[in-house]
Amino acid sequence: MALSSAHLLTLTIESDEWRRTAACRDTDPDLFFPVGTTGPAIEQIANAKAVCNQCESKAACLEFAIATNQDSGIWGGTSEEERRQLRKKYNNRARRTA
What we know:
Elements: H1 5-10, H2 40-53, H3 58-67, H4 80-97
């Protein structure tokens, strides 16, 4: 997913209309915050991502998570490590264009 710096700058905590249509809205929040990344957590992560993959708010959720540095849980169909990698790529691109 490409993230534009202009879009991230306009994304604020107040602009959370995407939450109203989020597929996870009626799902147990614990599903999206597995303990660990091995064993039973692997299935839990897959189940959380399956909810995300059916969600019309997936992109907005991911952008919110990156913009607000959500460092735990599944957000926008991504794990903690996947978001770290996206943030790193975004920051590297921002540095090159600055």
